[in-house]
Amino acid sequence: MNFKFARTELIKDLSKKGIKDPRVLEALYQTPRHEFVDVTFTSRAYQDMSLPIGFQQTISQPYVVAKMTEILIQGNVLEEKPLGAVLEIGTGCGYQTAVISRFCRKIFSLERIKALSLRAEKNLKKIGITNYQLRWSDGTLGWPTPKKFDAILCTAAISQIPLKLKTQLELGGKLICPVGDAKKQHLLLLEKKSKHEFTETVLDSVLFVPMLKDKVSE
Ligand code: SAH
Fold this sequence. Notes:
The chain has 218 residues and is α/β, with parallel strands linked by helices. Helix content is 28%, strand content 30%.
């Protein structure tokens, strides 16, 4: 399979679907999604769809990864004001971690399933990414040691954004999370205006796997 050609086609598709930021399109072009999926799905790695990664979880749809990235970096001219620390809840196989790593000093990512966290570590190493830190932990409890983040993204859906995540967001930071139940969800963007004040923007309808509590060692 010609992966470069497949990636070019994917970028054209994303662009048609409304992804405008050239930095985001370039990041998805540069990220070898086929390295993140099981060999059974290699031929579909560059189709704009989520795919199974085992443990009843999925690798996110490229459009959704692009959209979330676009929102997080909006207003950040990369060369002048790059994002510092970014927190991701739901590492999965590490695909979105890889995309976001291109736009921040360091990406921190939490995953509740140990085997996936280990797999993500392997995938990220394989493609040469170094500015990340992964932890096997329940993301609803936030990063396990005290820390503030310039941006937080959740890649699993929840009915209400955990307070701990709001607390770990820097002033002026953005938090993006799919909110809803198994049938109906939308992306919610929170912007932290002061310690207890957030503006809320409801964005696209989406469909993510649910965020679950407690870490598991399967
Ligand atoms: N970011 C991934 C998406 C993976 S799907 C990608 O780029 O494809 C969502 C992931 O969230 C799953 O791996 C799931 O195990 C994880 N997850 C669900 N609830 C969680 C929680 N409370 N803490 C950490 N990870 C969680």
